[in-house]
Amino acid sequence: MDSAPLDNATATVYMKHHRHGHWVAEHKAQRLLSIVHFAYPIVLLFFFLTTFTIRSILTARTDGSDDSKSEPQFGPGGKPLPKKKAPVDNTKNTFLDFSRPRKLLFEWLSLAATLTLAGNAVTVIVHALYARKEEWWCGQATVVYIVGAFMVYTLILISIFDTQPSPTWAHASSWALAAAMEIVLLASSFALYTHAHHEPKAGNPSGGHLEREMTEWEITEVTLDLVRIILLLALVAFYILFVTLHARSQRKQSDSQASTSETTGLLAEDRAEAGAVNGSANGANGYGATQSNGHKKPKKAADAPAGWEKPTTTPSRSWWEYIRGYSLFFPYLWPSKDRRLQIAVIICFAIMLVQRGIQFLVPIQAGKITDDLADENKTGMPWKAICLYIFYRLLQGNNGLLGATRSIIWIPVSQYSFRELSVASFEHVHSLSLDFHLGKKTGEVLSALGKGNAINNFLESVTFQVIPMLVDLFVAIGYFMIQFDVYYALIVAVVTFWYIYLTIRMAQWRAEIRRQMVNSDREVDAVKNDSMVSYETVKYFNAEAYEFNRYREAVDKYQKAEYSVVLSLNFMNVTQNMVFMVGLMVASFVAAYQVTTGQRSVGKFVVLLTYMAQLQGPLNFFGTFYRMIQSAMINSERMLELFKEQ
Q1: Smallest Cα–Cα separation from 625: which of 492, 451, 503?
Q2: Residues in domain ABC transmembrane type-1 (predicted)?
Q3: Across residues 400-410, what is the average pLDDT?
Q4: DSSP state letter for 534
Q5: Domains and CATH numbers, the chain
């Protein structure tokens, strides 16, 4: 009789222990899912950018001939001159590029994998709307995973379209890493969903209903994850297959070229397609160099203008080639023998770091003033907070005290660089041979000699404008993640990505239009100058009407190009503003909701608006920065090529 209570107590203890074990297993699975969800987009983005950068460097190193064996040349002052780049043999392409059908296969599979993440996002939104009474919400980790992974997948897809050759081993390794992390996520989801578990709730990841099996929403989520894994594995498998087939084809081709036929002509350079003049009936080349056409001309490369001449199109060079070229200017730019200028450079960098701190403190101080004014318990005037805010604003920006001080200190450094480069290039041109001076275009040489300041502008723009802007963006993302929540950081990251990408793409598109306008402007000046100089000739032949029409046509051509440039500029500005305004609207809605529900203070809302306004300023000028940097790189490249003349 006494055993019944004992059995009941044992069963109760067993049930409690069993429930505790289930709770621990559920907690571990949720924690693993949360960690992988947060880490997934960050790890994948870092890995892809790293492998993509490494591949760019490796391919840039193999481009062109090997100059390591050539004797080094030295310029004025004993500084090393850049080595003359040997002509590149275009018939040798060591980089694998897939055929158009195969590339389309990769593009469609990558697009499908990206769309599965969009399907996850739609599932979450519909589920949240359907179960709004239960306050269901997937949580921050899932939102970061879906949105962040979608952006990284989009970046990988864009790189396939924009780069040549593509895809590369950087893409394949990124797909493999993504598939591995997706498998971990799928296994964790199965471990959680196939056992008793609580659905996530807004503010509590385990506060929802208890589910003992997979729901329809969870089945949809797992199905999309499984499809994404299959697509990623297919991308990796097709890449390995096509690379293997290409290597096998190359091996067979090299073997066939190595085995020389006995009927090959001793002096013939190519095999005739329809037989030789003195050949045999089977179409093999006979003895001698005469081909079937009898008039075949040797192939000649088109005469390209010298590198120091003004280019007619935008030069196509990788970023690593520019960096490698600029490294040769370093002995002229760095004041190695002037300790005072070296200290000035260090002070300028220190001021730039202080400016980043001031940029960070201004919106926070504005929020503190707002909280002090909104606090009903405080009746005094926030004199100290307001004065501190004014002090920060006095130091802030390139027009503030710190920016002006940095510009003044940088003047002798900039003058030193310009002086060294200009004098060195001038001395180098005088040291060139008579053949160069007899065949040179004086105007182009003088123009290239005057591009020393372009290098200073490039370095100053990158060092004190572009890099600080990127630092401010990363600091803003970290600040919003810590002081607000991950949604704000995600909004800033997405806005930054699309803003910079669209700006670069439209700036590249505008570069060609702007080049047409510049060429048209030069044509207007040329027609005007020629007509004025040839005044007597025009009068002698009664060609005034002809000259008037020629000038009118040149002006019309310039104005059409100018209209396209202005139109594209306004289109780019509107697009930039729309991207930023959408991000600001979403962030403002989230912040306003949190303020009305008591989760945030009014001061935090002011901090958000002030910080976003500060970020908009540098971003608005990013298109101008990009065009200015692109122009400076092209101009400085002309001086670099002039240095290569020997």
Answers
A1: 503
A2: 346-631
A3: 92
A4: T
A5: 10-64+96-250 (no CATH), 319-334+421-644 (1.20.1560.10)
